[in-house]
């Protein structure tokens, strides 16, 4: 039998009415509490704003950023480095006459061998100077 076709009993009706009454009373109490809190103004600490040391606040923010970003300089840049399926591990080289051979591996080896940002020739010293 479908639920809408079920006969309603007096006990079920009484429980439904009691539940709705309790819910309405709870909503009224919560609404009254929220209205009471909305009326009270929140004082702002205006006098403490003049005593804020901007230099210390900036130094603290910079220190937090460097300690948060610093470990990222040691992460491996190429997740497929030192594997057989690394698409970056390819190079092109050439040699003209008796000159020393020149190739792209000179540039890409730092990344394809599992290097991090701190190991790169140009970016490494810069990150070591800026980050811990």
UniProtKB/TrEMBL annotation:
Keyword Signal applies: yes
InterPro entries (alphabetical): TAT_signal (IPR006311)
Entry keywords, A to Z: Signal
Residues of the signal peptide: 1-27
UniProt-recorded name of the protein: ATP-binding protein
